[in-house]
Specification:
Blueprint: E1 2-5, E2 8-11, E3 15-20, E4 23-25, E5 33-34, E6 36-40, E7 43-48, H1 50-54, E8 57-65, E9 70-73, E10 75-80, H2 82-87, E11 92-93, H3 100-113, E12 120-125, H4 138-141, E13 150-154, E14 159-162, H5 164-169, E15 183-186, E16 192-197, H6 199-205, H7 216-229, E17 232-237, H8 244-252, E18 259-265, H9 269-274, E19 281-282, E20 286-294, H10 299-314, E21 318-324, H11 326-343, E22 351-356, H12 360-368, E23 372-375, H13 389-395, E24 399-402, H14 413-422, H15 427-433, H16 436-440, E25 459-462, H17 471-476, E26 479-484, E27 487-490
Parallel strand pairs: 3-8, 4-9, 10-17, 11-12, 12-13, 17-18, 18-20, 20-21, 21-22, 22-23, 23-24
Antiparallel strand pairs: 1-2, 3-6, 4-5, 6-7, 9-25, 13-14, 14-16, 15-16, 19-20, 25-26, 26-27
Bound molecules: zinc ion.
Length: 493
Amino acid sequence: MVLVLFGQHYSQARADLVIVNANVRTMSAAVRTAQAVAIAGNKIMAVGTDREIMALAGPATETIDAGGRLVLPGFNDSHVHFTAIGNIFSSVDLSGAGSPEEMAAKIAEFARFMPAGRWILGRGWDNRKWAKKDLPSKGLIDPVTPDNPVLVYDLDGKTALANSLALAKGGLNRLSRTRSEGDVERDANGEPTGILRGAAINRVGSAIPQPHVQQWPELIETATNYAASLGVTSVQDVHSDELGDTYRALDARGKLKTRVYDCAPLSSWKRLAADGIKAASGDAMVRTGCLKHFAEGDKVAADELFAEISGADRAGLQVMIHAIGPEANAEILTVFERVNAKNGPRDRRFRVEHAQNARPGDLRRFARSKIIASMQPWLFYRPARRDASFKSLLALGGRLAFGSDASMTDLNPLLGIFAAIESGLTVEQAVSAYTIDAAFAEFQENVKGTIERDKLADIVVLSDDIFKITSAKIRETKIVLTVVNGKVVYRPR
Ligand SMILES: [Zn+2]
């Protein structure tokens, strides 16, 4: 059977997933809004009316009713430190917990994003501050941590609470009484309550894999789960820890919920070039070929930087340089312009990371020299001071790509969109900088960043229509569904 819809032929067409009754903003120039979207495999099959899209549904198609909510392309964060985002979850601060329930809720929030098996560690709880001053027990946290061992110290650091999984890892149970096990609090039946002191803490602690903070797969899996909850479907990782193999291994296990453009230090360009890597090399989930560097700011460094960037550029790699302040921006723009002149015209997409506080005259050079300003509106947001540079850059015909710089600040793109709007951008411009323009900044604008036929199916459903509400309400907007690569990767409980 051949179906003809929207002037296109769909032979034997069946969608795997359809999202209907939606307010779709495609962010593409051609068709701007739609009611529904169909996904087949990892790609967008069609956008159209509910009627048109339902015609593509078969018995095996999953149908999601968006309840009239706003649907956007997944957010693309142009500047993150991804493993550092996973590292936020390496220690839970319980000092603010005013009750055992609050303590359990904080631990539950960590467990939500942690892969099974990752230890939840932390400190700071203080039962003396609670209305009932009883010590907590494992029964408080076991229900919210079925898959993660937990060991959390109190404020003094002399007492710790472990959950059942952690007690088991430490070999502590009803029958484990020995002289050497230390101080294990037990109930009337001899069952450990979870409260440990002295050698008992060490015994459980010795089961924690070391070093705790360099368990890369765990950190990335935590970060990708967290990103999915915020509708971030792509990240450009400038942390330069070159974990491409780790990302690919996670993807092969079906655990990677975020597309990653994994950058290397500029000084590594010869090695990448020798491996035949160019800008945006890789598959749709994990790519490399970007090089990140901090601008030094003196003339000698500028000459060295010129030589490095020029070489990397000739090898077809993409270069992004950090610059904050008028001098740093001016200097890196000069180096980029020298490379433009020396190496000749090419679609190279040089980027200045942060591009903060550039002189108004230098903003013009971003546009003229086709240099992308990769900016972080929320990181630099000050309520009293509007940042006119976003608006000026766009007015001058320059290109913006937005990001967060998480874990320096929150990964939540709605905070960045809020801050950009406060600084005078339209919602459309702010969302573009977080979707299609961010895709452009990583050479991916033809495969993602809009909701269009044949693009990768990265889609988010938002709690509220950010095109219609106040900027203050945009800050509060939540993600209610995230689709990456055609699969639902996040749905709040
Ligand atoms: Zn950064």
